[in-house]
């Protein structure tokens, strides 16, 4: 089979991308998401993509899926009832938590502390104790553990998490409790901290393990149901899920460790953006993914996304490797409103979502949204998603008129422009979080914009950030699905060491890394990959002695010469990163806290499409003229069909470029050049802002 299928389920739309591995040709489908059962929208979209390609479902190979099942379970509070087993004396570990309150100095006054995912009444203690060096201080009281588990069984828990003190150093007690749980609880899913997160820090390890247990039944049911339905539909390929770090894992592994899927959807977009930027010849870029509900942004340097050790979803922050993505509640469905107290226009974070959606969708929505504002300004056509969604301009005008009546804005166009300006500023703030506040100048990066709404706002974000060119990929509305289809299998293994550099040498650290590499490779080898095709990378979390936080640093295994070259390279890399982040260094001894090995499979052999060359004149693709409102007044914009554009043609602004899954706005004073890979490269016409990080 030569077709790969990428699937991305968002809050508003489900995106499908079918890729012909031989030619690189792609076939797209975009359909409304089905929150009650995501698999319904997935199967419907797959059928539509296959119809467009003219193939049967039996010709589809592997399915790569970015999912929000785990994310939604957290955000909506609809996970399992979780029981927690702790060491005696640690029953309130989740309630004590960390003394951190988000917001300003007096944020604690209005901050409602989130309820733990495992209630105190569903938390039990067992006797037994492991020391920090892994030695047994007190043997496990198995009869005590059995009684505690029987109590949880009587209370009707739906999932179990086990997190005992210092189990990262010795997992024997946790494993024994898990065996007893299998006898007492039967088919209840069990998450063990020494498997989920074998790292230092009791609270973070417990929280991550409980989060894993909380979403595990939902993810297991979904993957099993989708696998069954794919098979019933005639698709014989395997189902893979996208991890938060941008790699793929088998459906079975995902069901065992679903906490690694919490940022599955946004990670797909970053992976797709990296693929597109590589085809266009750019190495350093910001990603800007604007959908119907939210906007996700990330920074990619040397074609490698920045990876963080913390995953945040709502109020939950767990220790799980993920692409460093920042999210704001700004999307096409974000609702504009005027609070009576301030009389100031606000946009989001509330969203009209897929149901009822923006007023222009004609599905019962009446509140003004960003999409309605774009319709009023003339930026959007009368239909979206290949005709599946028809827009009602009169309903959009009526909705935005409520903003005019609540403010002193003079016209519906001015109100719509105000909505768009505010949402653009909200998204600029997110882009600054991943660039300026991390020590990077956005003017040194290109900006890859995608998502259903991203290309409409991309040119404006380029002006605000100074990031040029703005790259609009082919099929921007389904780029997350493209990322799913073009990324690689990945797994990692981790171990806490907690040693000063003076107690380490190259040989001992290399031995630890070799053991971790074997563990990281294991799941990929079980999935049928060849050992020779795997790539291994290593990283360590380092700090100065006395610091309460670590900084992740890549490990160069080639520097390990047995004479201290590896340790020396680690020290230099940490100092450089510490100085970049904080502008100072300390004389304290360096410590290595945690080490990781990551195994990555080969990238799929998907050919990149190449457009035929044009003569530079895009007039053959121009279909009409549209009256739009931009920069405070009306003007005429050329309307172009993207599939009629050829490589080398230049579309001058103001212009609207239409395609099935998205609409691109080129502002006055800018132009979009068609790259041979199919991307549109938008720059100021005088090119005064620079050309970005081209390589």
Mean pLDDT: 89
Which regions are unreliable across 5 or more consecutive residues at pLDDT < 50?
A: 688-695
> In angstroms, what is the radius of gyration?
26 Å
Number of helical stretches of at least 4 residues: 16
Counted beta strands: 38
Q: Class by helix and strand content?
A: alpha+beta
User: What's the end-to-end separation, in Å?
Assistant: 34 Å
Main sheet: strands, sense, barrel: 10 strands, mixed
Strand content: 25-35%
Coarse morphology: globular
Domain Hydantoinase/oxoprolinase N-terminal: 4-184
GO cellular component, one term: cytosol
Domain Acetophenone carboxylase-like C-terminal: 508-673
Protein name: Hydantoinase/oxoprolinase family protein
Written overview of the protein:
A hairpin with an 8-residue loop joins β21 and β22 (346-351). Among the domains are: 78-212; 334-424, no CATH class; 490-600, no CATH class. Strands 13, 14, 15, 20, 25, 26, 33, 36, 37 and 38 form a ten-stranded mixed sheet that branches. A six-stranded mixed sheet has the order 3-2-1-4-11-12, with helices on both faces. It is an alpha+beta fold and 695 residues long. α10 (370-376) packs across α12 and α12 (412-434) crosses α13. 31% of the residues lie in helices and 27% in strands.
Set out the fold topology.
Layout: E1 3-9, E2 13-20, E3 26-32, H1 38-53, E4 60-66, H2 69-76, E5 82-87, H3 93-96, E6 123-126, E7 129-130, E8 136-138, H4 142-154, E9 159-163, H5 172-185, E10 189-192, H6 193-196, H7 202-232, E11 239-242, E12 248-250, H8 251-256, H9 264-280, E13 282-290, E14 295-301, E15 304-305, E16 307-308, E17 311-313, E18 316-318, E19 322-323, E20 326-328, E21 334-337, E22 346-351, H10 370-376, E23 383-384, E24 389-390, H11 393-406, H12 412-434, E25 446-450, H13 454-465, E26 470-472, H14 479-486, E27 490-500, H15 506-526, E28 535-544, E29 551-555, H16 565-582, E30 590-600, E31 622-630, E32 633-641, E33 650-652, E34 655-658, E35 663-666, E36 670-674, E37 680-684, E38 693-694
Parallel strand pairs: 1-4, 4-11, 5-6, 5-9, 9-10, 13-25, 25-26, 32-34
Antiparallel strand pairs: 1-2, 2-3, 7-8, 11-12, 13-14, 13-38, 14-15, 14-20, 16-19, 17-18, 21-22, 23-24, 26-37, 27-30, 28-29, 28-30, 31-32, 33-36, 34-35, 36-37
Helix pairs in contact: 2-7, 4-5, 9-14, 10-11, 10-12, 11-12, 12-13
GO cellular component, one term: cytosol
GO biological process, one term: glutathione metabolic process
Pfam families: Hydant_A_C (PF19278), Hydant_A_N (PF05378), Hydantoinase_A (PF01968)
